[in-house]
Design brief:
Length: about 100
């Protein structure tokens, strides 16, 4: 199956990302990232990420990345299972924009 990713670079897996909090410590770890495009992808499993406090924490961290110029894409595990091709297409489209 051709996905149109033939010209896209390979992502870095489990990349520690620094945000805009003024330190060099990692703000969060992206599941996949394309540093040269400043695109970070998070794959969120229901069991770990469905709690409101976890969602608030995730949002704060991802907002820091966005403030640092990163594009952040997040997908729920169920979304990936139901429509992996759609998730991949969203990533590819973002990479082509940058």
């Amino acid at each position: 199956m051709a996905t149109g990713t033939e010209s896209a670079s390979r992502p870095t897996q489990q990349l520690s990302l620094v945000g805009t909090d003024g330190t060099t410590r990692p703000v969060t770890i992206a599941d996949f990232a394309w540093p040269e495009h400043k695109v970070a992808v998070f794959c969120d499993g229901w069991q770990h990420h469905h709690y409101p406090e976890r969602q608030a924490s995730d949002k704060a961290k991802r907002d820091q990345l966005a403030d640092a110029g990163w594009t952040v894409l997040s997908f729920w595990g169920g979304e990936i299972v139901r429509d992996a091709e759609g998730c991949a297409t969203a990533i590819i489209q973002q990479l082509r924009r940058t």
